[in-house]
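Continuing the batch. This is chain 6 of the set; chains 1 through 5 are on the previous pages. Same settings as before, nothing changed between runs. Recording input and output for traceability.
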Amino acid sequence: MKVIGIGNDWRRDDGAGLEVARRLGGIQLDGEPIGLVAAFAGDDDVVVVDAVSSGARPGTLHVFDASAARLPTELFGSSSTHALGVAEAIEIARSLGRLPTRVRVVGIEGALFDYGLGLSPEVEAAVEECTRSI
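Output for chain 6:
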């Protein structure tokens, strides 16, 4: 199984996916989610972890099976800092025949996305839970 974390450490809770990947020795995609297409290569079982902002309680884990259905773009669509979101990158991989057989996506509900370092306490706890569950 391959773990891929997406995010930006300089935007507080947006670094949650990167932190999960660091703790599990996975791939860290700091920047555009389109890098998922290349990162998927060589593995048929992948977990993608990214921070989300849906209005749910900070630290909530949203888990989806992207191999079975499209991701909700309201959680994983393009944001103001990315040209493409995770949902769009996964659909590009699907259309190119490069989507692994099993792709699970975990969204960690963030609280703080301003400039700065460090995760909020709720997101730090969620990163620990997510890391254990993977």
